[in-house]
Amino acid sequence: MRIKRRYFLGGAAAAPLAISCAGVRADDGVTLAAAPAELQLAPADYAPTPVWAYNGQVPGTALRYRRGEMLSARLVNGLAQGTTVHWHGLRLPNAMDGVPGMTQGIVPPGGEFDYWFKLRDAGTYWYHPHANSLEQISRGLAGVLVVEEDTPPEVDHDTTLVLDDWRMTENAAIHSGFDNRHDMSHAGRLGNYITVNGLPELTGELRPGARLRLRLVNTATARVFRLRFDGLRVWQAALDGMPLADVAEVSEVVIAPAQRVDLLVDVAAAAGEEALIASVERDATFAMAIYRVNGAAVATREVPAPLPPNNMPDLTLKDAPTVPLVIEGGAMRGLPDGAIWQGSKMDVRALAEAGQFWAFNGIAGVPDAPLIEADLGETLRVPMTNRTAFSHAMHLHGTHFREVLPGGVLGPWRDTLLVDPGETREIAFAAENPGDWMFHCHMPAHQMSGMMNWIRVS
Ligand code: C2O
Ligand code: CU
Predict the structure, then answer these.
(1) Ligand 1 and 265: CB distance under 6 A
(2) How many angstroms separate the CA atoms of 36 and 184, rounded?
(3) How far, in Å, is the centroid of ligand 1 from the Cα of 55?
(4) In this structure, is residue 232 part of a structural domain?
(5) What's the pLDDT tens digit per position in 144-181?
């Protein structure tokens, strides 16, 4: 593997040491103030970037709790537009889900909203706005929520790496143009500048043999990261917060927008060498985290055991109702004429004029009636067929699902699944959590231009 140092707009500077991400324990309630701020996202020879941030930080304040604790957070809206907080991947009461117009009213500028719910599952989650999502997330509103297991695995470092992708101007300002039709109808808003924990690259120092838990979170709105490792032995331990039954050694990790991957990692490089995490991109492979390996070796541990499982429902595939989902639209393939938007059939040109480029089962945007009405307690199967020319990160709120693999084998629990062009990927989930839940593509440029529907569990 040939690895380059990352260059940005002509200049590159070493990022400061920032390996650990300690987080704030919020027993007595935390405040998340969403407001404009200025942060040094680009290397030091650039001006600070005007962002929108939670508590002035990108990523926003890291929240850390133990499983079973109550999360209590007050959103204070210091933006000039309405917002909410969605707790991505959490099984929570519907009224706490943060979807404006569906589970709560939008929080206006100057307004507040209290979120309060019990953390049922351990794992790596994140939070972000669910209003004007493309602009609000792209300008920096996103933070990590870690829920610790009762008995966490024994590691030397528990580190969160938030991967993000920014579209910057030459002056390191965030490019506007959130109504860009090309982004909407193609691969979404891909950026030109990548950060890890808000920095161009991470640097740090590790002892040989040390074990890390790396919590990877992709908060980008369109970029799928492909990571490779050098000088590290890597096992995949959890996807989207949910522990894998088998911990598998991997050489590469693919992480789509909104997904999380928990890795257990041993430093295999010797003292004096480097250990690297690199992003494989079209034209080159770039270092994202560079660790100098130094000091006395930590005694090598056994191959890691699976993380303790969360208490997930049983899925009964036999006789489960099946609701096929056909994903259509976008550049190259296009929508069929007669797709429905806001209750009326429209031709493709009228849909494009309304900024709608995609449809689920012939419906663009959030319809009045849900895509699926599920009875509490039943298992549902949804084969998702992607007839478009682009990949989509399909996300269901309120519960995790499992992929139904060939032979009816159930894959890992996930909350976001990347479905590539031409694929049919079937998911199954238990309608265990009553309420109205969004089901959408987590590339917000697609979400806002048609790929946003919902299910009702009652
Ligand atoms: Cu992470 Cu509907 O969102
Ligand atoms: Cu999409």
Answers:
(1) no
(2) 25
(3) 21
(4) yes
(5) 999 999 999 999 999 999 999 999 999 999 999 999 99
Whole-model pTM? 0.94
Is residue 128 within 8 Å of 86, Cβ to Cβ? yes
Q: What is the pLDDT of residues 346-386, one digit of tens each?
A: 999 999 999 999 999 999 999 999 999 999 999 999 999 99
Tell me the per-residue pLDDT of 114-151, one tens digit each, with 9 for 90 and over.
999 999 999 999 999 999 999 999 999 999 999 999 99
**228 within ligand 1 shell (Cβ under 6 A):** no
C-alpha neighbours within 13 Å on the C-beta side of residue 431: 23
Could you please report the per-residue DSSP string of 351-364?
HHHTT--EEETTEE
Render 99-144 in DSSP notation, one character per residue.
-BTTTB--B-TT-EEEEEEE--S-EEEEEE--SSHHHHHHTT--EE
Domain span holding position 414: 325-457
Whether 165 and 125 map to the same domain: the answer is: no
Taking CA atoms only, the protein residue closest to ligand 1 atom 1 is 88
How many structural domains is the chain composed of?
Answer: 3
CA–CA separation, 249 and 391 (whole Å): 26
CATH number of the domain to which 274 belongs? 2.60.40.420
The reply to whether 246 falls in a domain is yes
Cα separation, 439 vs 423, in Å, equals: 18
CA of 364 to the centre of ligand 2 (A): 13
Atom of ligand 1 nearest to the CA of 128: 1
Q: Which ligand is nearest to the CA of 446?
A: 2
Q: Spell out the residues 6+ positions from residue 380 whose beta carbon is closer than 8 angstroms to its own.
A: 320, 321, 322, 323, 372, 374, 428, 429, 431
Whether residue 141 is found in the same domain as residue 207: no
pLDDT digits (tens, 9 = 90+) for 212-267: 999 999 999 999 999 999 999 999 999 999 999 999 999 999 999 999 999 999 99
**Ligand 1 centre distance from Cα of residue 134 (Å):** 11
Place of tokens 């419906």: 363
Q: Which atom of ligand 1 is nearest to the CA of 126?
A: 1
Q: Is 260 in the pocket of ligand 1 (CB under 6 A)?
A: no
User: Is it the case that residue 16 has pLDDT exceeding 70?
Assistant: no
Q: Do 447 and 361 form a contact (C-beta atoms < 8 A)?
A: no
Tell me which residue has its CA closest to atom 3 in ligand 1: 88
Q: Radius of gyration of the chain from Cα atoms?
A: 21
Q: Is 448 in the pocket of ligand 1 (CB under 6 A)?
A: no
**What is the rounded (10 degree) CA torsion for 71, 72, 78, 81?**
60
In a domain, 304, yes or no: no
